[in-house]
Amino acid sequence: MARNRVRKGRPLDGWLVIDKPTGITSTAVVAIVKRAFNAQKVGHGGTLDPLATGLLPIALGAATKTVPYIMDGTKRYRFTLRMGEARDSDDADGAVTATSDVRPTDEQLRAAAAALTGDIMQVPPVFSALKVAGERAYDMARDGRPPELPPRPARVDRFELIERPDADHAVFEVESGKGVYMRSLARDVALACGTLGHIAVLRRLRVGPFTETDAISLDKLAASAEEGPASPELLRPVATALADIPALALTSDEVVLLQHGQALGLLDFVGRIPQTGADGIVRAMDGERVLGLCRLEEGWLRPVRLL
């Protein structure tokens, strides 16, 4: 007789924003959080490289359903470009592959950053999780078979030089959407100035609605879990991830219909429909409680993902 698989751990729902230290992978942070809370289901909202620090949103339980909306949100980074050295990983963890004596001026760096702002085509780092013929690019690179990765569309909303500590280093802030590689931006801004470069320091400052004020350290999490599982009071509500999506208030009858997966005619929502983006996505609300996400299309409100 087949047995139903029972998940181990507590059925917790919510978001935890970790201030990730350097030298640890995002997957390792997820494992630490899962153990600390003794949680059933845990995932993260956007990988950070081991070298990088900063915001790593961790989703527990029902929050994992909202991960795509976090990953699609605006992200803000600050990185330090080290000029004069190309590295195989495009960051300080890699091996030096070439050097250059050229050191651009601040004006040249600003002009190069401006040219890399907006809708661009970007070649990902060879040390990335992209798959090539079923293999991860970083596995191929480690085996001495670095793949030729084609350029991909990327959207960079802001790319600004904010500090020049010395001739070898420049500090930038970047705001971008999903799938933009900071290591590639650092490499490419150096190349555009006629030199070579890589990321020496990288920090993520924002992910969607989450900022540094929302984050806690792994040390604080460990302290919370010293005498048993970490407190659920550390978690933010599942709906926090959807704060940037327009809200639509529903009546009790509409809530029941929606929870049964039924589409609702938009004529009943006249005067209540919020301004939406091109995707027509709204956050369906039962009072202060988020039911899930719906799409306004062809005269109907259709459920997309219910929480």
Automatic annotation (TrEMBL):
InterPro entries in the record, alphabetically?
A: PsdUridine_synth_cat_dom_sf, PsdUridine_synth_N, tRNA_psdUridine_synth_TruB, TruB_C
What SUPFAM superfamilies does this protein's entry cite? Pseudouridine synthase
Classify the source by domain of life: Bacteria
Query: Active site annotated at which positions?
Result: 49
Picking any one GO biological process from the record gives: tRNA pseudouridine synthesis
**EC number(s) stated in the UniProt entry for this protein:** 5.4.99.25
Enzyme kind, highest EC tier: isomerase
Where does the secretion signal sit in this chain? Answer: none
Start and end residues of each tRNA pseudouridylate synthase B C-terminal domain: 183-242
Q: Sorted alphabetically, which HAMAP family does this protein's record hold?
A: TruB_bact
Q: Which PANTHER family match?
A: PSEUDOURIDYLATE SYNTHASE TRUB1, TRNA-PSEUDOURIDINE SYNTHASE
Chain's role: Responsible for synthesis of pseudouridine from uracil-55 in the psi GC loop of transfer RNAs.
Q: What is this protein called?
A: tRNA pseudouridine synthase B
| Species the sequence originates in | Acetobacter estunensis
